[in-house]
Design goal:
Number of domains: 2
Number of strands: 0
Distance between the termini: 51 Å
Shape: elongated
Largest sheet: none
Oligomer: single chain
Structural class: mainly alpha
Length: 205
């Protein structure tokens, strides 16, 4: 791990432990084992470190999506993939994504930091909403819209259908963040949720 990567890792750990506002550049430099002026050679500010962490999270997500043989951001491309998947494959993809968001070190720590900061910093509250609510709902809404047009899913309200799908998953994720020992229970509920969603809105409806 090079110095730039170590700065991001140590900064994210500190943000998740103390909250973004309570961590200073000097604190990050101390954890990395360098002086603050040396840190500034890599990142111009604490906000630049924060932005680089988001970039790294996006890079990790792209790698995960590629490993799962989907795009992850292009809803039109993914609709063509999802429409031919068996229910067993849907369940496997659902679990893989859930476990990725739950256990990926960057996502886990970043979500914890935003949970701490959302009531103190309106900008970070908006980042939380964008990353874990607005962006997933936007992507899934477009994905489901394409699948409804193709006749794979059936509904007269794509927005509500999207909420029906995502809200329980987000709920299970936050439960496991607070109580990690409930992960097996959450995975079982996730499977049951996807099966029921497929039967409510899918081709067998």
């Amino acid at each position: 791990m090079n110095t730039k990567e170590k700065i991001l890792d140590e900064a994210l750990t500190l943000f998740s432990e103390k909250g973004y506002a309570n961590v200073f550049v000097g604190d990050i430099a101390d954890r990395v084992g360098i002086k603050a002026p040396s840190l500034y050679k890599h990142y111009k500010s604490k906000r630049a470190i924060f932005d680089a962490i988001i970039d790294e999270m996006n890079r990790r997500f792209e790698e995960q999506a590629k490993a799962m043989q989907i795009n992850g951001t292009d809803a039109a491309a993914d609709a063509g993939i999802y429409k031919s998947l068996s229910e067993d494959r849907l369940l496997m993809l659902g679990r893989e994504f859930f476990l990725y968001y739950l256990h990926d070190d960057y996502n886990k720590k970043f979500r914890k930091m935003l949970t701490l900061e959302q009531f103190h910093d309106t900008d970070l509250a908006k980042v939380y909403s964008k990353l874990y609510v607005d962006d997933p709902l936007s992507y899934q809404g477009m994905l489901f819209g394409f699948m409804v047009t193709a006749g794979v899913l059936k509904t007269d309200n794509v927005q509500i259908m999207t909420l029906h799908f995502y809200a329980p998953i987000y709920y299970l994720l936050t439960i496991c963040d607070r109580e990690p020992d409930r992960e097996p229970e959450a995975l079982k509920l996730l499977d049951d949720h996807i099966k029921q969603f497929d039967r409510l809105y899918g081709r067998n409806n």
